[in-house]
Every structure is written in structure tokens, then in C-alpha cells.
Amino acid sequence: MTVKAPELDPKTDLSFTRTLAVPRQLVWDCWTKPEHIPHFFIPKPHRVTAVDIDLRVGGRFNTTFDVEGNVMDNQGVYLEVVPQEKLVFTDAYTEGWKPAPEPFMTAILLLADAPGGGTSYTAIARHRSPETRESHEQMGFFDGWGTVVTQLEDYARGLLK
Amino acid sequence: MTVKAPELDPKTDLSFTRTLAVPRQLVWDCWTKPEHIPHFFIPKPHRVTAVDIDLRVGGRFNTTFDVEGNVMDNQGVYLEVVPQEKLVFTDAYTEGWKPAPEPFMTAILLLADAPGGGTSYTAIARHRSPETRESHEQMGFFDGWGTVVTQLEDYARGLLK
Question: How far A45 CA sits from the closest chain B CA (Å)?
Fold first, then answer.
């Protein structure tokens, strides 16, 4: 099956679609296996120093970043896991469905076979308010997430060799 | 299997456990089938006038109340569905994982066979902040949810006859 994209709300959502020259299975593996995440997950030279994944609905998706010497802990959970097609995660909860005081966003990744080969990759960030969407765009959503997907494609290509 | 209760945070969570003299399967059906919901879901004489359920992770759980002539629309989604054991839902999202601006709570229902027969019923409400938990307690969490479970038990008993 191919999962349906949600109906987006331009006031609160950010989104883009790109075609990647790597197979869908590999894109899925990169996004869901802890050994792959540090190779693409944040724009270089920032580094992912720890990844803790329990890939199931309600399971944890926790990462630690080193951004110019500052350690940032990010805690979240998976909301929906449809292998090779759809991954939804958020910082709105930590494991056990404990609500976060001030959630920032909910991310939806949609993967499909691209018509000419490779993978059609859609990234969606949904926010609680227009203000949060706006601040995410100002923080560099398109550059940042674009860099991440370029890093992902480069890294995944290397795995194919 | 029996699902594990999450580790609660007394600062932000409310919870109680009761034993109901009806089978677990029936308690599950009452909570998940739209035809049953109006019979117990809010304290009488308030009425549930509409129920729209898509019982799957991310599916909608929408209800309409008539409270002394005031119509209240409640929209939410299911976060986790483990038949006859665990039901998690929240107003933090509407269908399609659209984040709500100001979520109030996340509810976790846990059902187990009670040692002497019947169903051990645990209701947990998790909140984003101590203030939200406090206001939910002031609004009458224990009375309200207690009344709901009494209504549920009475209604379910009637179905057994």
C-alpha cells in the first residue's frame, strides 16, 4: 500500500518533497537504525553523540547533539511506524505517553518509490501554532532539513557501494 | 500479555484503579464502540449526542456533548490500541497528527482480569504541567471519572442480562 499524506495546514505546517537516488528500504533503515542516524541527522559539523531508539508506537526516539561544544538532549517518541512508508515522531511526549510541557513539532516522513527510480521523500513538520511554524521557518527549516536529506542521500549512496 | 503501567509522575498525573463486576471484553467494547459510548461517557444528566470513532493508532475519537443545552465538540485521536488491555487517547492531536494548540490531557485506560473475577480498571490522566493536573483535579477528576466508571459498570451489567 501507499499511505496517504495528511491534509496540510499552510498556517501551521512546513513541508517539502525530494527525490533521492537511493532505494526506499535504505532510506527507511537510515532513519530507524541507531547506527545510521549520526551520519546525517543534523547538519555538519554538528554531531550526534548518542541515539536511543525503540521503534514502535510510543517507543522512544532520543538523541544527543554536540553543537559547538553544547550538549543538547532531545527526547521524543514514535507516533506511527509503517515500515518503509511512514514514520511519525514528536517531542510532544516522552516514553510512557508523558506529555511534554512545551512541544515544538510533530514530524511526518513519507517514503514512496519514485516513478523514475529512487525514493520520493516527503518531510512534514506540523506545529501547534502559526507562531511556532514561523519560528521553525526562521530557524532554517528548509535549509536545515534540506541539508539533512542531502547528507542522508550521500551517506546512503556510500552504503550501496 | 499484560501491558505494563507507565511510571507515573504525581506532579502531573491523576489516576485510580477500580474493580468492575463485568468481563474485560465488555469493558473494552463499551469504550471502543460508538453505540455504547453515549450510555456512560459523561456524568448524567449531561448527554453525548454524537460519537465518531476510527479505532486505530492516529484514528479519530471525536465526541459531542450536550451540557445543559451547551454543545461541546471534543476532538482527539487514539495513540495506542491494545485490544482488551490498553487504550490511549488524547486531545493533543486531531486526525492526521495535527497538533492541538493547547492540549489538555492524555488518557490511558488499563484493563486486566481481576484476581477474584471481573475487571481491574485503571484510568490515568497525564498532563503537560502541574497546573493542568491541578485544574483537572479541581474540575472533579475523581468524582467525574468515578461517576463515568460507575455508569459504565451499570450499563455493561445490563448488557449481560
Answer: 31
| Chain B residues with beta carbon closer than 8 angstroms to that of A79 | 57-58, 79, 97
- Min Cα separation A100/chain B (Å): 6
Order of strands across the sheet with B13-20? B13-20, B119-126, B106-113, B86-90, B77-82
Averaged pLDDT, B54-62 = 97
Q: In A, which residues are within 8 Å of B58 by CB distance?
A: 79-80, 88
pLDDT of residue A161: 84
Question: What residues does each domain of chain A span?
Answer: 16-160
List CB contacts of B92: < 8 A, sequence separation 6 or more: A92, A99, A103, B76, B99, B100, B103, B106
Decide if B98 and A57 are in contact by the 8 Å CB cutoff: no
Over residues A10-58, the pLDDT tens digits come to 999 999 999 999 999 999 999 999 999 999 999 999 999 999 999 999 9
Q: Is the pLDDT of residue A64 over 70?
A: yes
pLDDT band at A2 (very low <50, low <70, confident <90, very high): low
Q: Quick check: B98 and A129 CB within 8 A?
A: no
pLDDT (0 to 100) of residue B4? 77
Q: What is the pTM of this model?
A: 0.94
Can you give the C-alpha Rg of chain B in angstroms?
15
CB B111, CB B120: distance < 8 Å: yes
Judge residue B122's burial from the number of C-beta atoms within 10 Å of its C-beta, 0-12 exposed, 13-18 middle, 19 or more buried. middle
Q: Chain B: residue nearest A127 by CA?
A: B99
Residues of B within 8 A of A12 (CB-CB) are: 98-99
Q: What's the pLDDT at A41?
A: 95
Q: May I ask the CATH class of domain A16-160?
A: alpha beta
